[in-house]
Amino acid sequence: MPRSFAICMAPACGLALLFCIGASRSTLAQDVGWPSCRDARTAPQKVEACTRALPAIRNAKLSERAYLRRGLAFVELRQYDQAIRDFDALIRLNGRVAGYFDNRMNAYRQKGDFAHALADADAAVRLAPGHAFVYRSRGIVHEDLGRYPDSIRDFSAGLQIEPANAGLHVDRGRLLAKLGDINGAVRDFTEALNLDAKWTQALKERGLAYVTLGDPARAKADLRLYLQSEPADADAAAALAVIGSN
């Protein structure tokens, strides 16, 4: 190699190294707003901090986290259109995460847009068919639409994956009761309580089911126990009062 060529390589390497260091520092500077977004506590603080941080973030994963954090904060603030826009951005960045569709589904559902909510719930099931939460979410949307048999099928699918999920037993029990299968509902509520005695909603639902079955003694026992932990529940108190007057 000619000496002149070898000599002029050293400055070039130095410039390249300086360029790489400068680019790295620039990237770090651009992402410096992320910690304030990450550490914000209240929903308004999250919106403010993440809004400041997002334009400067160049790291794709940090962008996902910032959009997710701000989107969830918008849901908490009931600003559903803004939340949906953030979840749209999330899905454009990474359309392979079922949870992102699930979050957007919830925003659509809270807004009352059940058609879009169901489309997102379907997408989440396609992306994560082995996870119970996607079936629960879709079952809830079906319930919103009055499609109770579809809800029960989804809750049952979730229970095939997570048979020890007390919440899914309560969800399915509620729908069974609405369809008139009171004994099936009682079985689900009882299983929920066997799995988690602290799941007090199961006590209320089972107590109301016992009322329908004409079993006032068991209804009173469940509703009284439920009201010990939820004394402000007017519906349960009214049901107990009616039983007591008979």
From TrEMBL:
Pfam families reported for this sequence: TPR_16, TPR_8
TPR repeats: 64-97, 132-165, 166-199
The keyword Repeat belongs to this UniProt entry's keyword annotation: yes
Signal peptide range: 1-29
Keyword terms: Repeat, Signal, TPR repeat
PANTHER family assigned to the protein according to its UniProt record, in alphabetical order: TETRATRICOPEPTIDE REPEAT PROTEIN 6, UDP-N-ACETYLGLUCOSAMINE--PEPTIDE N-ACETYLGLUCOSAMINYLTRANSFERASE SPINDLY-RELATED
Protein name according to UniProt: Tetratricopeptide repeat protein
